[in-house]
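Good morning N.,

You mentioned wanting to compare the apo and holo forms, so I went ahead and generated the holo version with flavin-adenine dinucleotide. This is what I fed in:
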Amino acid sequence: MNAVSDTWSKPIEPPSTCPASADIVIIGGGIVGVSTAWFLAQDGVNVVLCEKGHIAGEQSSRNWGWIRKQGRDVRELPMMIESHRIWRSFEEETGEDVGYTEGGCYFLAATKKDVEKYESWMSTAREFELDTRVVQGDELANHIENTSQTWPGALYTASDGRAEPHKAAAAIARVASRLGATILTGCAVRGLETEAGSVSAVVTEHGTIKTSAVLCAAGAWSSMFCRSLGISLPQLKVKGTVARTAPGPKILDGQCFDKRVAIRRRQDGGYTVAHGGGNLLHPITPSTFRFAFKFLPALKQEFGSMGLTINGDFFTELATPVRWALDRESPFEKQRVLNPAPSRRTLRRIRKNLNEVFPALKNTAFVETWAGMIETTPDVVPVIGPEERLPGFFIATGLSGHGFGIGPGVGKAAAGMLTGKDSGIDIRPFRLSRFFDGSPIRMGPAL
Ligand SMILES: Cc1cc2nc3c(=O)[nH]c(=O)nc-3n(C[C@H](O)[C@H](O)[C@H](O)COP(=O)(O)OP(=O)(O)OC[C@H]3O[C@@H](n4cnc5c(N)ncnc54)[C@H](O)[C@@H]3O)c2cc1C
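and this is what came out, ligand included:
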């Protein structure tokens, strides 16, 4: 059974009808889009979500499933703490299974210097009253079983959780739909119509929806969508390769990150595994050159853990127009699901490292492999906010490789932004203008 890739490999299910109007239209059915729809539906808002492919067909089903507070940028922590609260109560509140459980999260230190870095993050942990600790010696050895390694220490948060990405966004979409949200799949948004400079309608491949408010939650496509409206959103993509194992012997309950292997226990008793350090591959495209200057700090921080490649993506992007007619097929329909091939080389390295670090899993086979395109902003922190130059257009995107865990929190914040209701989450640190108003590009901790 291909438990994960079933999410995106099934036939597209287009809508039978398209609503003529809505209070709010959401573009994108990833964790951000469905969570926003859920919070809006709870408030009785008439919301329509348009997804060009499948719910969670892209990043939101392909990720590792880590839900962590530790190691985050301080700007994200209040929203992440709220997100954690939402994950904790979701199953009881809705009756839906998303595989949420708390087995703890470990960042495993390769050197004493790493331990010092973790210790320096403890002041943030204390400020936000997290249960994060630096663990060492026997205590660490007791937490992680069946390993050939000893680590000088680890950053550890017992309450950090995990869920099953191939279940989660679909479950949230179902709950939103039960509360009255309209969820359309196989329904690409081609662009917007405006009246007197403000949003007046969303043009989809299946018809036009009159609305005065639109949320762009289009994941890796957000930059291209915004560019078609004349809005610059700095965003680049990196490919991550992942494997799923058959059920295997226990090594830990939660998830851990070592420079060679990142591993999470799955609900089915198997593991989701990836390369810890050298997992990411950035395919160079024209956007790389357009945004190069803004991404310099991120490139410096990630140098060593990221490879560069040039492939067909360069020419695909080069051949994609900046604007297109809204009555013809758009680039979003041409590529319904962004489905990059997993890197065979990375898979070989994951297998080798897994065997070395956790020899007990040597005979536990990889039963499924896939890749996902992660989108990232220059400071690796989301963009959430209204776009002042186009009243009625709002953005919640750029979750930068750690958006699954914080997704429900982003959804709550985005719903508040759209209705004016106080979500209790300050979204000002996430405004798009931070990349253009001379603010320094501030990176989070490099743990
Ligand atoms: C390999 C990998 C590992 C990761 N591991 C973790 C992890 O362990 N923990 C964690 O917190 N995060 C992780 N992430 C990151 C996380 O998956 C993402 O940050 C998050 O899923 C982004 O959600 P989203 O809703 O913004 O975007 P997406 O899930 O990408 O959804 C965007 C949706 O918009 C749709 N769309 C785009 N344009 C249009 C259009 N014009 N019309 C209609 N629909 C459109 C797309 O089809 C897509 O389904 C990982 C990501 C990957 C790829």
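The longest helix spans residues 77-94.

Happy to go through it together on a call whenever suits you.

Best,
F.
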